[in-house]
Specification:
This protein folds into 2 domains: 255 residues, Aminopeptidase (3-Layer(aba) Sandwich), CATH 3.40.630; 208 residues, Alpha-Beta Plaits (2-Layer Sandwich). The chain contains 11 helices and 23 strands. By secondary structure, it is α+β, with helices and mostly antiparallel strands. Helix 1 packs across helix 3 and helix 5 crosses helix 7.
């Protein structure tokens, strides 16, 4: 029996329930992709399916809208597959078990996939409609967004004619996202020579920091343990000579590093001095970070006599110099959207091995030229120290558009429907809109919207039924007003 048969809007929730019955986790999208193709075939709609399982479905304009600018409605067809330990769902072959709790829709023991099944359902409802007035609709359905926007990355935009782009992958009703950062992972390498050495091994650790996601919380100015450890080493080295043995902090480029430590080899007579210096630096850090990171701690541990290999004096100085001069955190704030971080970078992972020190960054900017400039700064620093920088995972940004016909239409419709202004927002992270903006050479006129959801990507995911109904009415009205 259908769980959602009496839930409004029926035209949307009917498709959503069909989607939930089909396994569609990331990298398991062939079945849901074929479902979309059959939808198009059954209605004699023009459609395309690529080798990655991305799908385009086109519905021509209704009467009176033939000369109106076409609109893309876009969402991704994969979902995050998480479940409780008790759940026996097999995401590779089972559908979801839907339930309703008051105004909220959920899946029993698993993620719901409202992110982004609700976008797919709304797009299908538009293209299935018999009496909804609209311009030419180009439904764009991408795969594997949740694991790196892989479908959007290989998407061929040559079959699209529209430049207006309505993305339904936001999770807060009333917030219009209109820009996102582009980014790249940069990994800098500084060469290191090791030599046989002996002395007392001292371990210095930075801990107690709050960390956070470098896209969402870089504006909190939480300390980076990787930069703080470099600063501590520099301060100690003003008084005591030493050689670096180990250096490590963090594992991911996009996480603000919470803990970092270094082992240094010092002369036996300098151990007490190092311990005293660490205590003094700890007091300084506690004062400086008392608001953003009140738990920051710099600690010292005497690990005893050591006879082995350590970075030579020149290599040690080279690494300290790099860390003292590495950029970190916010570089530019947006002048178009108040409070938005435009450009930043984060030294998320630091590691010293036998031959080199590596420093891995998440570099982000909504302005491509500023992202490139930041990469040039990293290259310049690494090069002067005899090193290099390598890049991976680059994705383009979605720059704020000063003149946006679609945004103006959305704002006008929202004010009419809700009686208030929507919140205009940009995010300092990547979205599929950025990849499409890059492929369409800056012509994209895009807005990202969506209904209220909570617990996304967890088994506690919930989708607001009343919010879906309001957003559906909003989408229909935007199409109607796009004549």
């Amino acid at each position: 029996m259908s769980v959602l048969s009496n839930v409004e809007p029926k035209e949307v929730f009917d498709f959503f329930e069909q989607i939930c019955a089909i396994p569609h986790g990331s990298r398991n999208t062939k079945q849901i992709s074929d479902f979309l193709v059959k939808f198009a075939e059954d209605r004699d709609l023009e459609h395309y399916q690529d080798d990655a399982n991305n799908v385009i479905i086109i519905k021509e304009a209704t009467a009176g809208y033939e000369k109106s600018e076409p609109i893309i409605i876009q969402g991704h067809i994969d979902m995050v597959c998480e479940k409780t330990p008790e759940s026996d769902i097999d995401f590779t072959k089972d559908g979801l078990r839907l339930g309703i709790d008051g105004d909220w829709l959920y899946a029993d023991g698993t993620t719901l996939g409202g992110d982004d099944g609700i976008a797919v359902a709304m797009a299908l409802a538009v293209m299935d409609s018999k009496n909804l007035p609209h311009p030419r609709i180009e439904g764009v359905f991408t795969v594997d967004e949740e694991i790196g926007m892989l479908g959007a990355e290989v998407f061929d935009v040559s079959k699209l004619t529209a430049e207006k782009f309505l993305n339904i992958d936001s999770e807060d009703e009333g917030i219009f996202t209109v820009s996102c950062a582009g980014g790249v992972t940069a990994k800098a390498f500084v060469p290191v020579n090791r030599e046989a050495s002996k002395g007392t091994l001292c371990k210095i650790t930075v801990s107690g920091l709050l960390g956070g996601h470098s896209g969402q919380e870089i504006d909190k100015e939480h300390g980076s343990a990787n930069l703080i450890i470099g600063r501590a080493l520099y301060e100690i080295n003003k008084t005591v000579g030493f050689k670096l043995v180990t250096l490590a902090g963090g594992t991911a480029d996009n996480a603000i590093c919470k803990k970092s430590d270094a082992e240094i080899l010092v002369a036996d007579g300098d151990v007490a001095t190092v311990e005293k210096l660490v205590g003094e630096i700890d007091k300084t850090l506690k004062h400086e970070f008392k608001t953003p990171d009140p738990g920051v701690t710099l600690s010292f541990e005497n690990e005893g006599e050591c006879n082995g290999e350590a970075a030579d004096a020149e290599s040690t100085q080279r690494m300290i110099t790099y860390l003292m001069n590495s950029p970190q955190g916010i570089q530019n704030m947006s002048k178009d959207i108040e409070g938005l971080v435009e450009t930043s970078l984060n030294l998320g992972a630091l590691k010293l091995d036998d031959r080199e020190m590596s420093a891995m960054y998440a570099v982000r900017s909504a302005v491509a030229s500023r992202k490139n400039y930041l990469c040039d700064r990293l290259e310049s620093l690494a090069k002067v120290l005899g090193g290099r920088v390598e890049y991976s995972g680059e994705y383009p940004g979605w720059e704020y558009k000063q003149d946006s016909v679609l945004r103006d239409t959305c704002i006008a419709v929202y004010k009419k429907q809700y009686g208030e202004e929507p919140k205009i927002e940009a995010i300092h992270a990547g979205l599929e809109c950025g990849l499409f903006a890059g492929k369409m050479n800056g012509k994209l006129d895009a807005v990202s919207i969506g209904p209220d959801m909570t617990g996304v990507h967890t088994s506690e995911e919930r989708l607001s039924i009343p919010s879906v109904e309001r957003v559906w009415k909003f989408v229909c009205e935007v199409l109607k007003e796009s004549k």
